[in-house]
Specification:
The protein contains nine helices and 18 strands. The chain is an alpha+beta fold and about 375 residues long. It has a six-stranded mixed beta sheet, with helices on both faces. Strands 11-13-9-14 form a four-stranded antiparallel beta sheet, covered by helices on one side. The longest helix is centred in the C-terminal third of the chain and has 22 residues, at about 265-285. It is elongated, with a radius of gyration of 23 Å. The chain binds zinc ion (ZN).
């Protein structure tokens, strides 16, 4: 048994007890983690959102130098509908060799392992630092991680590698698509249904906009990137919601379209956004006057494209004694680290199949595998 397993289980129990649903504050959890970490770390920084309801934590164990390894986990969880759960979602429950609770797999199990290892990292004479990064707002478009990474890039030290512990059953994941989310609002001019020429129909303009999204999606489908590891292999675009108009006999004055794109490559994303910018300029000119079309980016989370020769990949292969790599269909914060020049991979305990589901769990065996990996990491980064 890994000697840190019991500590990790206790910590996980506490972490599950903080109902850090994305829309709520995560400050209680961050304060708990900070209090726990302080005796073991050499530096600890928080970065907050604008209204200071949520915070990221970034702790460093070891020398304050570049070239360290980040263990990165998001603190927020998706909501849990109690009626569908066997037990209470925010009370950790052990049944046989599993721990149940919201966030056990996604991804407080990983965070618990990182925290449990902090005293161990502190007792090793680390040559390069281990960093623990806890972020907020991941589930609604990675709102926290960019602030944390910006702080890192500006103030250092700059890590070499980030291990993002989303549930991969401790497999090495080197690729996932990006997830870009947008809200497009068309403001027209209301009018009587019998006189459409005297009004500007926002719903009809929205239809033109969605048609353009469909055309772009079709073009992307016909041109998947070579050797794409994804299913489906091409970049997708999907319209999620449309809200507009007030009555059948009133020309719609406003319409909002929520849509998303999952780019297989960054160049696909650029192609779509450039094309839409031109189209919006055309539509805007046609709309004229007070009418407008405005697209707001709700979140632009880059995909992960780990280079086969990357340091992160070599490190994980060594720690896990495993050479296979995989791609996953979900987005993570790893692409954000990569964009900042920090080599990233995704690897964490538990399975994505139970994430966002009732009776989410992580197995003790997975927690131990994660702790073993972290023990190896500590030894690797310490002086001989
Ligand atoms: Zn997650």
């Amino acid at each position: 048994m890994n000697p840190h397993r019991d500590a990790a289980m206790l910590l996980l129990g506490d972490l599950i007890g903080f109902p850090t649903v994305t829309t709520e504050s995560n400050l209680d959890l961050i304060e708990y983690a900070a209090d726990y970490l302080r005796p073991h770390v050499d530096d600890l920084r928080l970065t907050h959102d604008d209204n200071r309801l949520r915070a990221n934590l970034f702790a460093t164990i070891g020398p304050m130098v570049d070239g360290g390894v980040v263990l990165s986990g998001h603190t927020d969880v998706v909501p849990a509908d109690e009626h569908h759960w066997t037990g209470a979602p925010f009370v950790a429950m052990r049944r046989e060799q599993r721990i149940y609770g919201r966030g056990t797999a996604d991804m407080k199990g990983f965070i618990a392992c990182a925290l449990a290892m902090a005293p161990r990292f502190a007792e090793l004479a680390l040559d390069r630092p281990v960093h623990i990064a806890l972020t907020f707002g991941e589930e609604i478009g990675c709102h926290g991680a960019p602030l944390l990474i910006e702080d890192l890039v500006r103030n250092g030290p700059k890590p070499a590698v980030a291990i993002v512990g989303e549930p991969t059953e401790m497999g090495i994941v080197t690729a996932h698509k990006g997830c870009y989310e947008y809200t497009t609002t068309i403001t027209g001019m209301e009018g009587h249904g019998s006189q459409p020429a005297h009004a500007i129909n926002a719903v009809q303009y929205a239809a033109l906009y969605i048609k353009r999204l469909l055309d772009l999606a079709e073009e992307l489908r016909a041109n998947p990137p070579e050797n794409s590891p994804y299913d489906p292999p091409y970049t997708t675009i999907s319209t999620g919601t449309i809200h507009g108009g007030s009555a059948r006999n009133i020309v719609a004055g406003a319409c909002t379209v929520e849509w998303e794109m999952r780019p297989a490559t960054r160049s696909d994303a650029r192609l779509v956004l450039d094309s839409l910018r031109r189209f919006e300029a055309e539509l805007g000119a046609e709309l004229g006057g007070e009418a407008s079309i405005v697209t707001v980016a709700e979140g632009e989370v880059d995909g992960l494209e780990t280079d086969p020769g990357s340091e992160a990949l070599a490190l994980m292969r060594e720690l896990l004694d495993e050479s296979d790599v995989a791609s996953v269909p979900f987005g993570t914060e790893a692409g954000l680290y990569q964009r900042a020049g920090i080599d990233a991979v995704v690897c964490g305990p538990g399975t994505i199949d139970v994430a966002h589901q009732p009776d989410e769990y992580v197995s003790l065996e997975q927690l131990e595998a994660c702790l073993d990996m972290m023990e190896g990491l500590g030894e690797k980064l310490s002086k001989d």
